[in-house]
Amino acid sequence: MTERITPTGSSDGPSDGDRLPPARFALDRQTWKEIAHLLLNLPASLIGFVYVVTMLATGAGLAVTVVGLPLLAGGLRGSRQLGKAERARARRLLGLRIDEPSPLPRAGFFGWLWSSLKDPVAWRATLYDFIRLPWGIATFVVTLVSLFVLWPVLPFLARGLTNVDRALVRGLLSPDDALERRIAELESNRGVVVDAAAADLRRIERDLHDGAQARLVALAMGLGLAKEKLLEDPDAAAVMVDEAHGEVKLALQELRDLARGIHPAVLTDRGLDAALSSVASRCTVPVKVTADLETRPAAAIEGIAYFTVSELLQNVSKHSGARSASVDVWRSDDRLLIQVRDDGHGGAGLDGGTGMAGLADRLGAVDGLFVVDSPEGGPTVVTAELPWRAREGGLAR
Length: 397
What we know:
Elements: E1 2-5, H1 29-61, H2 68-94, H3 109-117, H4 120-148, H5 154-172, H6 177-229, H7 234-262, H8 265-270, H9 272-281, E2 287-292, H10 299-320, E3 325-332, E4 335-342, H11 356-364, E5 369-373, E6 380-387
Parallel strand pairs: 2-3
Antiparallel strand pairs: 1-5, 3-4, 4-6, 5-6
């Protein structure tokens, strides 16, 4: 079973005109829709042209004043709404399958101003309205005359003219598919990162409350009792102090384990090779670690790589039934690659309750890839790929 998780994407669908019936010598329903669209071109283009010219002239003329840029930003927001109306008209009358662009982010005044002024959707809609007036006049006149003079060929004429409209809408009013996919991906990944961070904080709070904190409270109570018995029963007090000393050691170990779960010191000080060797030494299955890294990636990438391998080796210990495993880490161009193998019984997947789906989400949040190849009977090979992103301070480039 092979499962692959990659950053969000989508395939291109059929072209917008595929679902339109061919034009023929008949004024059918689609032809009447196209005629209506062509006749509406004049008022729509006239409104758009007047709005854009007024908005640009006013905004540009007052740009040197404190109100100029806000007026221009508001005008661009209005252009965005005109573009939305034109997309709706094209969907209804021309049969265009066209998506709406992502909404602008909600922020304070300066965020609103900046996002409005640099909004490519609004600027393309402004250009659309600015150049459309001659075409709107021409299509209105030609269509109106053809209704009385050239009506036998009007279906073909209407189809040809509206195909130009379709091209204009697709070229200037369609969202940038690659950009929109990236925006949707980043919004999704932001949610994954926030959820993961919240889960980690809850885990740390729970571990502190139920582990080290509870042990330290018991230790304080024990030392208090020992202090009371110190004069009247020194031997009993000595025994209690000795027990408290043992509790201190356990509390320190729990705190070390908790700190290792947040970010291990060996990773910060010595890098992935040493950190992964440390993780491998705690695995119940013999693990061979090979790290071919001349320099170090970004600290955040190192941390994700470390915890990815750590969780995969935990799965090997708990679920695989393997007798041996290996971890290989290397750099390829600007990517960090990790491969974890084991000779267990296989059958691992993203929906098996082993935490792999969470790993895939975390890697996807930083433009990573996650591939699980685990046929029944084994072996299991998990490959992870992360962006390199050189460390700050000039350690690597």
